[in-house]
Every structure is written in structure tokens, then in C-alpha cells.
Design goal:
globular; 10 strands; 292 residues; 37% helix; alpha+beta; oxygen-dependent coproporphyrinogen oxidase
Length: 292
């Protein structure tokens, strides 16, 4: 695959322009802070955008472009806590030989437990998910902890350059994003303070998990150094992890605690994992996990 002829900027441009049809986007201070981040190799280009809107706490995008090595898109949108909307998530990593893809409307609450949340947001979207699940087969093992943050319509896949699927991926991105924006349009502001606080904690739990488990961190560290990469993860990609709540990773996930109080980074490969899509066409969780 000729990476020089490919860019995820098309995806970002569509998403931002489409969002502007539905609401008013206001640039956030983090956009000004991070939009001119320079890679140490002087050839990789990083582009960062971040906005808020009346129902959106954070819309942010980071693309990494190196025409000889890789193309990366990390795009996510988080609603304000007055709404329990799913989190739009697109994580795409492409090299000359392989692409790794996660595209989802990440649930704010675990849909294997919260049937009401699953019915509210995913029941009508199952045909969309099934359509693209046929084009993008399940990409391999996913741990049971990670599954809590995936929805029944998640696309988790890998494909080689010989299987070129980026046109289909763009179509999936467009359709998933349109579906998410429709949910935003329909969302009614929550007035119950206790429910708002639950939404806030659920989003903070998600941010805490993602900031600790971010698979792109090693790439960022190599490109911009440890200090700036940590800053990008905690104050841009997962902005709010330091401000929306006081709980730590081990408060939310005590099963990861080592005897010395540190985080057990090896635990992710222990326990149940899912090698095939664990939802049926109706969105019901059928499991089928095996040992990690």
C-alpha cells in the first residue's frame, strides 16, 4: 500500500463538517496548545483538533502521518454528563502492510449488564452493525475487561494491504458517525442530579481505563518524548481524566492491584478473552470467551 497516497484527514474533515451541520462547535484551549506538536524525527506530522458544543463536552481528533511508515487516526466525541450518550470512538492504525481498526459507539454503561441502555441506543443500530461486521470480521482476542467498553455494533478488525478496505472503512465511519449525530439530536437533557453524577462517573471510568490502556502511547512516546506524550494522553486524548473525578485506575479496577500497590500490567492477558464476535444479530451477548 502506498501510504503517501492515503490520509485519514478525509475522515476528520467529514466528521467536523457534518457535526457543524448539527450544532455549533467552539474550539477548546487544548486545540491551541497541541495543534503544533512537532515530532522529533521532523518528518512525521501530527494534527490535533478539539472542540466543545452545547451537548458535547469534548470532540477531539489526533492524526499522525508518516508517508513512509504509518497513518493513524484517533477520533472521539464525549457528551456532557447531562446526557448518557455513547462515546463515538474511531481508532485506526495503518502501515504499508497492515491496518488495525476499532470503530464503535462505546457504551457509557456495560451493555452486557444494562439491557435498558442497550435497548435505548443499539437496538435500532444492529442492522448497521451487522452490515459492516460482514465486511470487517472480528480481529481476534479481546479481554473481558475491554469488552465492557464495547457495544454490540463494534467493528474490531485487522486487514492487510492486499485486502485494501479503506474505502469501505470510510463508508463505515460515515454511517456510524451519522448514526451517532442522530442520537445527539434526539438526546434530552437529564435533570436528575444523581443520574448526572452517575453519567459523570461512568465517563470518568472510561477515561481512566483508556488513558491507562492507550495502545498508541508507545508510538507517541517515540515521536514526541515521554513528557509530551503523557500530556497528550491525559490533557488531550482523554481530557477530563484529571478533572471529572478523583478515583484512580485501581479504585475502578482493583483486580489489577499488585501486592505492592502498583498496577499489574500483565493482567490483561489473564482470564477470559473473546476470539469471535460475542454478540448475536439482535445485540444479545452470547459470550463464547475462552482462556486468555
Amino acid at each position: 500500500m502506498d501510504l503517501a497516497a492515503f490520509s485519514y484527514q478525509k475522515f476528520v474533515q467529514f466528521a467536523v463538517e457534518r457535526t457543524q451541520r448539527h450544532t455549533t462547535l467552539t474550539p477548546l484551549p487544548s486545540q491551541e496548545k497541541f495543534k503544533f506538536v512537532k515530532a522529533k524525527d521532523d518528518k512525521t506530522i501530527l494534527n490535533a483538533l478539539s472542540f466543545c458544543a452545547p451537548k458535547i463536552r469534548l470532540l477531539r481528533s489526533l492524526t499522525i502521518e508518516d508517508s513512509s511508515a504509518m497513518q493513524v487516526l484517533d477520533y472521539a466525541v464525549f457528551s456532557k454528563p447531562e446526557y448518557d450518550l455513547p462515546i463515538f470512538c474511531a481508532n485506526f492504525f495503518t502501515t504499508a502492510t497492515r491496518s488495525i481498526v476499532v470503530l464503535d459507539l462505546n457504551p457509557l454503561y456495560d451493555v452486557t449488564i444494562r439491557r435498558d441502555y442497550r435497548e435505548k441506543y443499539y437496538k435500532k443500530l444492529m442492522p448497521l452493525g451487522q452490515k459492516y461486521a460482514k465486511l470487517f470480521p472480528w480481529g481476534g482476542k479481546v479481554t473481558s475487561e475491554s469488552m465492557k467498553f464495547f457495544s454490540p455494533i463494534v467493528l474490531w478488525t485487522t486487514f492487510t494491504s492486499s485486502q485494501y478496505k479503506h474505502d469501505e472503512l470510510y463508508s463505515a465511519f460515515v454511517d456510524y458517525y451519522k448514526a451517532w449525530l442522530e442520537l445527539v439530536d434526539q438526546a434530552v437533557e437529564e435533570k436528575d442530579t444523581s443520574q448526572i453524577l452517575q453519567n459523570l462517573e461512568a465517563q470518568h471510568k472510561y477515561l481512566t481505563w483508556r488513558s491507562e490502556k492507550d495502545p498508541g502511547y508507545p508510538i507517541l512516546k517515540k515521536l514526541v518524548g515521554e513528557s509530551l506524550s503523557k500530556d497528550l494522553v491525559r490533557h488531550f486524548l482523554f481530557e477530563g481524566v484529571n478533572t471529572l473525578g478523583a478515583k484512580t485506575f485501581l479504585d475502578y479496577f482493583p483486580e489489577y492491584r499488585c501486592e505492592d500497590g502498583a498496577i499489574n500490567h500483565k493482567r490483561s492477558v489473564i482470564g477470559k478473552s473473546y476470539e469471535t464476535r460475542p454478540w448475536d444479530a439482535e445485540g444479545d451477548f452470547i459470550g463464547g470467551g475462552g482462556p486468555g
